[in-house]
Amino acid sequence: MPTHAPYRYALRHATTEDLPGARALILDTLYREFGYGYVPAWHTDVIDLAATYVDDPRHTLVVAVLDGEVVGTTALHSRGPAHPPHPLQLAERYPSGSTAQLTRVYVRSAHRRHGLARHMVETACKFASQEGGYQSIYLHTNVDMPGAEAFWRSLAKEVYDARPTGEHGPGVSTVHFEIPMW
């Protein structure tokens, strides 16, 4: 189901043919950009993208493709934030089943600043609204990644700032957001 995308990029809900490229992009991002690589407790979906996003009718993986290469991903699933590591109040506010969680919003560096992430997020949000059963769209991001915080603030409302402070201790600079249902 292609959607409008900037330039000559194709945006679509992933098919099984897209999954090897999507997995490579996701793993490259985890290792090269985030610097911590694959963490089984956080990244179980990456091992079996088909079962997580293609086979489950309530989930989707949106890909941006150029000349046969997956250059962007955005995933959506029905699991709310886990406690721990996230605050209990967020797990209670965004329960699994009724929460559409956006994750894996990654674009290869050479393809950034073309509107791909915004288009993929819009496609995933439309899916959540049309799928039925979701009451909210939630996400969290590492705001230490260049451009991440400004991008999400342009689309979403902050619901919790979990950046490390004396109160929270050391950790990832995470901010949690909600996007209004469409």
Topology of this protein?
Elements: E1 10-13, H1 19-33, H2 44-47, H3 49-54, E2 60-66, E3 69-77, H4 88-93, E4 99-107, H5 116-131, E5 136-142, H6 148-153, E6 157-162, E7 174-179
Parallel strand pairs: 4-5
Antiparallel strand pairs: 1-2, 2-3, 3-4, 5-7, 6-7
Which descriptors apply to this entry?
seven-stranded mixed sheet; 182 residues; alpha+beta
What does this structure look like?
- By secondary structure, the protein is of the alpha+beta class.
- It contains six helices and seven strands.
- The mean pLDDT is 92.
Q: Find the structural class using helix and strand composition.
A: alpha+beta
Straight-line N-to-C gap: 19 Å
Shape: globular
Estimated share of beta-strand residues: 25-35%
How big is the Rg? 16 Å
Bin the helical content: 25-40%
| DSSP summary: helix tally | 6
What's the multimeric state? single chain
Question: Mean pLDDT, nearest integer?
Answer: 92
Q: How would a textbook summarize the main sheet?
A: 7 strands, mixed
- Count of strand segments: 7
User: Which sequence of strands runs across the widest sheet?
Assistant: 1-2-3-4-5-7-6
Q: What's a quick, concise take on this entry?
A:
The protein has 182 residues and is of the alpha+beta class.
